[in-house]
Amino acid sequence: MPDVLDMILHWVFPTDCAVCKRPAVDRRLPFFCRDCWETIRPIDGPVCPRCGRPFDSPLALTSSPGHLCGPCRKKPPAFDRALSPYRYEGVLEKAIHLFKYRRRDALATPLADLMLVWVDKLPSVSLIMPVPLHPSRLRGREFNQALLLADRLADRLGLPLSFEQLVRVRATRPQTELDRKERARNVRRAFAVPNAAGLAGQRVLLVDDVLTTGATVNECAKVLRRAEVESVTVLTLARRV
Prior knowledge:
- The chain has helices at residues 2-12, 34-37, 70-74, 90-101, 108-115, 135-141, 145-157, 180-186, 215-226; strands at residues 15-16, 23-24, 81-83, 86-87, 127-130, 167-168, 191-192, 203-211, 231-239.
- It has one domain (40-239): 3-Layer(aba) Sandwich (Rossmann fold).
- The radius of gyration is 19 Å and the shape is globular.
- It starts with a helix and ends with a strand.
- It is an alpha/beta fold.
- A hairpin with a 6-residue loop joins strand 1 (15-16) and strand 2 (23-24).
- Helix content is 33%, strand content 15%.
- The protein contains 9 helices and 9 strands.
């Protein structure tokens, strides 16, 4: 009965699309109309096999499928692979901003569904983990957007979720305020695994919302490696290019 009532209220009092301002009448897709949402398209073209950075040339991997981008060749990351199906732009950028900073947590499910567009590219994983927030940041934001996404993905993929074994032990400045070198220094020694029981041999899928330089997920991967996990695959919703 509550579900039926919710559906009726949604149709009688629809919210406006955050982009075009027309009524958003699909109750499974809050805050956006279907037409605007369907403008979100996966990255088309070759990406770095290690960090997922899109290459400028559509022929970049034609003769060398394992060719890595410059930063990955210069300093290979601690994670095995990072996948980011979308660019951080347009409608998706708006949706992530609403989700992350405006507490529109009803977007967690449709955003997690978008992350599964490249599910066939995921290697075998056995455990899902979100990138953690420091307690002080969590108190201010009141929720961890990476945890909400990871929870939905764990449900979709039928995998266990761990959100207490990888923790952030040092408060850091927001990464958006920093350049590449500063980002790496900012998160150094910011994470820990206080209880590594059961982690040895796990194939971890590490989840976050946006990947920029990869400094945060790389630092997480270093800590997980020390806990003897077998592999770390990073999955983010979008990446800044």
